[in-house]
Amino acid sequence: MKIVTVVGARPQFIKMAPVSRELKKVGIEEVVVHTGQHYDYEMNQIFFEQLNISEPDYYLGVGSGSHGYQTGEMLKRVEEVLKKENPDLVLVYGDTNSTLAGALAAVKLHIKVAHVEAGLRSFDKKMPEEVNRVLTDHISDYLFAPTETAVKNLHNEGIMQGVYLTGDVMYDALLYNIDIARKNSRILKELGLNRKEYILATVHRAENTNNRKNLESIIGAFIESGELIVFPVHPRTRKYLKSYGLIEKIKKSENILLIRPVGYLDMLILEENSNKIITDSGGVQKEAYFLKVPCITLRERTEWVETVEDGWNILVGTDKERIIWAIHEFKPSGDTYSYKFGEGNASKKIAKLLRGELYEQS
Ligand code: UD1
Ligand code: UDP
Fold this sequence. Notes:
Layout: E1 2-7, H1 10-25, E2 29-34, H2 45-50, E3 58-59, H3 67-85, E4 89-93, H4 97-108, E5 112-116, H5 128-138, E6 142-145, H6 148-156, E7 163-165, H7 169-184, H8 187-191, E8 199-202, H9 206-209, H10 212-225, E9 229-232, H11 235-243, H12 246-252, E10 256-259, H13 264-272, E11 276-279, H14 282-290, E12 295-297, H15 305-309, E13 313-315, H16 320-329, H17 346-361
Parallel strand pairs: 1-2, 1-4, 2-3, 4-5, 5-6, 6-7, 8-9, 8-11, 9-10, 11-12, 12-13
Helix pairs in contact: 1-7, 1-17, 3-4, 4-5, 7-13, 10-16
This protein binds uridine-diphosphate-N-acetylglucosamine and uridine-5'-diphosphate (UDP).
The site of uridine-5'-diphosphate (UDP) has 16 residues, from helix 1, helix 13 and helix 14.
Protein name: UDP-n-acetylglucosamine 2-epimerase
Domain UDP-N-acetylglucosamine 2-epimerase: 23-354
InterPro entries: UDP_GlcNAc_Epimerase_2_dom, WecB-like
């Protein structure tokens, strides 16, 4: 009984960590394939070190490129591995190009596919992630949905078979690591930060970075807000900040602390101790909610609607004045907290379900 896991991007290393641990416990053999989508030390290796994930069995080294190039190269190279390994099932996570390539390579070889974080929708097909999710869901045999909303989305698209409401594996990851982070992280000291006296920001969505007007507006809001903003910069964003001449502007401002991407443990500590979080990341929106930190989302829609419904997250898009208003004024609307992301045992449920299904097959 053998599973091939295909991962390649930062959030996938975090999502796979608790699931791999549980797969081991139920005696499933896991072969890990890393597409190479993310490769910088801070986007890649640091997560394997901190989260105790075993080194990938295959590193495909695809690297960066256009969507077609990247997904196509991954498809070719994952296929080669699958032909060699002949697994019972391929496991993919989230909505990146690595997710789609892994699922597509498998289904073409008649290998079953399981999708963790199935059923998320932004209903915006211009987002590459939305296309990846929809296609992956429609070729998956097992769909592990983190929320009831995700289950409903799948049902609305006619996907009824193989859908399981498991809860969110990112919640599992956070619960497992938060005490470890509290004990080991020195990031507040290193950066000279005081608890609840700074805002944490991350920006990396293509629609915010590859668009000069949007990125200028976001950075303009950060600077004009006058608040201390700690900003771990994704390599995509650094590239565009440089090419739009915004790095100089940031350096001249006195309130933005631009840092390299940080490891997961430092990130949890930066999140937990921030006064507010500003982000366009899916994972960071959820972590803000799990840690009960108010979140300002630099998008017009979110897949994680529960965080908004509960009043902890506000969608402001990229309008400068709206962002500045939210930085100063946004407060969660009360004490609502509906715990809609499971009980922190999603990974356990997934491993047990897979073991059951795989036993049935063999
Ligand atoms: C990808 C995912 C996105 C996810 C994000 C997590 C897709 C379509 N997008 O976006 O859903 O939210 O990962 O972080 O799969 N780069 C480096 N070093 C690296 C990685 C990237 O310099 O280690 C730079 C390259 O210039 C590259 C750019 O960042 O072209 C974008 O990387 P890519 O993996 O294509 O997309 P992300 O923006 O990271
Ligand atoms: N993250 C991290 N270091 C950083 C920024 C993010 O460890 O400098 C973690 C974050 O805590 C979350 C995950 O990366 O667990 C989110 O990934 P990202 O924002 O890259 O992608 P998304 O979730 O939007 O797909």
